[in-house]
Every structure is written in structure tokens, then in C-alpha cells.
Amino acid sequence: MKLIIAVVKPFRLEAVREALTAVGAEGMTISEVKGFGRQKGQTEVYRGAEYQVNFVPKIKLEVAVSDELADKVVQTIASTAATGKIGDGKIFVLTIEQAVRIRTGETGAAAL
Length: 112
Fold this sequence. Notes:
The protein has 2 helices and 6 strands, in the order E-H-E-E-E-E-H-E. By secondary structure, the chain is of the alpha+beta class. The protein has one domain: Alpha-Beta Plaits, CATH 3.30.70.
């Protein structure tokens, strides 16, 4: 089992969700986060005054999938979230040691 964590631009969320549903990802957790990468924030203008935004708003998706589906999910996120501009995001893939569905007590891949 794999945990795929992706940080993407907020306006790409719905497209990514639809694409992941189409490839068989059955659930995901979404968080609104802020951060920065190589772009080190951005400059914005408000009422004629320029100011620096150090932390850029992003969406963090967490998707737990079987090993067989992991590569397809990563490719789907990467292709759907891409805009070709700086700040498109990152994807991290971690191994899940164990999963338990609290309601039924199922464990392992059955809990996903």
C-alpha cells in the first residue's frame, strides 16, 4: 500500500479529484495549506500598494492506494495538476505499514 501526498494549486483541485475518481482512487483527504518552494512566495498589489506574500495557498491531497494503482495515481495527478508554470506543486509517495478501517476492523488493503 502507498500513501500519495500531493501539493497542488487550489484551482486544479476539482479536475484532479475527477481524474482520480476515473482511475479508481476511492477516497482522498484534502487540506488547505500554505507554503513556498523555489519561488519564495509572490508579490501582489492591493489598492496600489505592492506587498510580499511569503506563503502561497495550496491544496494538499492525501490518497491511500494499493501498490498496483500507485503509479497510475501519481501520473494522473502530475498530468492533471500541471499548468506549466512555477508553483505547480509536488508529489510524494510513502509506504504504508498498516491500515485499519475503524468501523469494521478490516486491515491491510481491504481497509482502503
